[in-house]
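Sample intake — Purple acid phosphatase
Collected from: Rosa chinensis
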Amino acid sequence: MRKLCLCLFSLLLTISLFPLLLKAKDDDFVRQPPRRVIFTHHDRSDSDPQQVHISLVGKDHMKVSWVTDSKHCSSLVEYGKESGKYNAKANGEHTSYKYFFYTSGKIHHVTIGPLEPSTTYFYRCGGSGPEFSFKTPPSTLPLDFVVVGDLGQTEWTNSTLDHIQSIDYDVLILPGDLSYADTHQPLWDSFGRIVEPYASRRPWMVTEGNHEVEIFPIIYPTGFKAYNARWPMPYQESGSTSNLYYSFEVAGTHVIMLGSYVEFDADSDQYKWLQADLAKIDRKKTPWVVALLHAPWYNTNTAHQGEGETMRLAMEELLYNAQVDLVFQGHVHAYERFTRVYNNKADPCGPIYITIGDGGNREGLALSFEDPASPLSLYREPSFGHGRLKMVNETHAFWGWHRNNDSNFVVKDQVWLQSLSSSKTCSKSVDQKITSPSTKDEL
């Protein structure tokens, strides 16, 4: 009965959200409609690990997370540098949760390390089941990020993940909307199984979107029950008191994960945490600063207009004064890259804003942009895809957006970036404001 309901649920979603095809203006590419939702079933034993994924913890540790159907499995990870030879092990913690009539499996979280940089480790979860492996990020630049938002679990999701896997990278960062479970909890399990081949091999660092909230009045008034249980991030290490906003550092890059769906005004815990977090950054040691959030602060798509404006008014000045280099946004199911912006004006010392909510969601693409285009918007396209950000050295990075085609991906937008910390124009103290309205072609 459960399988039948899930199949009907997926079919209805696909039919109800089917949009019209739209032909691209710049080439012969035909914009594709959303594809069907995929529900991935559990095909291992109850004691075997499933939904395995890893995340960074501090400078040299990794958190391994997985689920077992059996409640009697231990939260143990064995690991080593050779396949089948585990000379180290660590124990962790476990949790589970209920959501109406759904009860999760046993959710395990184990932190392992210290680990060496740029090293492949082999590991096994719970003392049984398949062997997995991952590669740790480098300790120094260069560093390769994959950026993908609004991922979901459709055939387009699988296409995106295949393209991501085809070229090596160090860390994946995701600005919200993971599973699109929307209170239908088995879809969280299905999502974990879909991403396991990728998220078990490289660290995935995520922040929440609106589809993670899952509030139900009176019964589940605070939301994020499944998200917090399944995807704990290293918030405590950054001084945060909430899994919904945090930061981490890797190879000369400070990454700030903001929460669009938790209080962010000047009196909020998130605002005070962000102030303190930005003040700690040493740009001589950490030349790059990147932020992620879900509801866009800048957006010329007709979808979700103004939904991030209140947060922008509250927090934009903090990011500007701290010389944040890039801000990645989700929510809008399209791709868009802005010039450097501050307070709705081009500013050579503001962040570059990039909307990348095009991972493969079930709702389809946001096809309509404002016309005429804003001069602040340099490239925009409603297609599924992902981005790659290569921190080449202390002064320069290379960004490229990869559009999905059926069997391959095409690089449609790319640009070289200079770090604001190395810019002569923007050399200033963190608390000093810049008033120059001038712009540059070089980003």
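Post-analysis note: The mean pLDDT is 90.
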